[in-house]
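Retro notes
What went well: the complex prediction finally ran end to end.
Inputs used:
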Amino acid sequence: MTGGSTTGDDGATAPSTGLQEKRQGWPLWEVFVRSSRGLSHVHAGSLHAPDADMAVRNARDLYTRRNEGVSLWVVPSSSIITSDPDAKEQFFESPQGKDYRHATYYTKSEGVKHL
Amino acid sequence: MATTAPVEQIEAGEQLFRDLIARDSRIEPRDWMPEAYRKSLTRQISQHAHSEIIGMQPEANWITRAPSLKRKAILMAKVQDEAGHGLYLYSAAETLGTPRDKMTEDLIAGKARYSSIFNYPVPTWADIGAIGWLVDGAAICNQVPLCRASYGPYGRAMVRVCKEESFHQRQGFEILLELANGTPAQREMAQDAVNRWYAPSLMMFGPPDDDSPNSKQSMAWNIKRFSNDELRARFVGMMVEQVKALGLTLPDAEVRFDEETQKWEHGPLDWNEFAEVLAGRGPCNAQRMERRREAHEEGAWVREAAAAYADKQAAARAASVKAV
Ligand SMILES: [Fe+2]
Ligand SMILES: [Fe+2]
């Protein structure tokens, strides 16, 4: 119940299937905007719309009123699968303590050019 | 949800919540949070959203009467922005668990509040200038620190809103500047509008600190970053400078900079009037609510048609999948 949104991009709900219920609130869509060619689509926020076509139109009006984008994605919020937010620590534990994955770990080469 | 989670889980969640607040980090929708935090934010964000939506009315009324095509286009863009602000904020509020439709229902049923500023009449074109300059100006003052609110979705919504707000204030300032440099009658109209909107815009920051029971908690939770009086004083200071550029005056003989506190002081405000307007007895409360209700009802067929179309399309898609 707390999930599925956007601006709260942290909690998607389980995927649902089938025809949408009658106006029991329009489904929620996540909007991604590509701000210019060469860049990826970035999450901008969410909106409600009865179907995908309307979601795209609403996304244009809501998130690109000032030339913010050259392309839009809309995705049903219910289709987003999220890592278990209650298990944050364990899930992302592995890279911790592995500084050697970063260039900054290797200090002996300091001062050597182009390295 | 948190209410049914086992005790250990709540305790861990509570610890994390406290740590995050202490570190001035952000709370996200799926994190454990105190019920009071959730409730208080839901109230604040939904009221904020309602204000953006109701706030469209006084200005939308003037679109057809704006004095030029340019001003019509600008005003339309502003009103459209305010609709967008309402939607960003409803989205943020929804992440706390209350569906948007429920919030809309509450507003229409008269159960929800919105900023009292929108219950004042807007009789002249100069009022549109004064609203942009003073009302959007006060809103910006209030909203900039909210970009750092501890609740992630609220902060993100405010960042988007603040980016769009600055043109609102500037277009208002420009309207007043043009009138102030116009005929004596236009100049008088501009001054009169500033006179009427000054005090209500100062009251937008909410009651004085010693009469604002929720503020303390809200600041402890890093939602609010400055007290009502602090923000109000800061706003007064900015207006004192800007009004000079307009060649107009603020209707407040007691405005002064206090060297000792290093803060701007202003004359007394009519907090009884504020309470009256908030309680629904302002000059335009009934009108604004009625218009909101009408708009909702008049839009019903659009919502129904859109839903019917979506269902038909989905049914057709399902049928064609079967056929394959
Ligand atoms: Fe706004
Ligand atoms: Fe605005």
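What we learned: The CA atoms of residues 257 and 264 of chain B lie 4 Å apart.
What to try next: split runs per interface for comparison.
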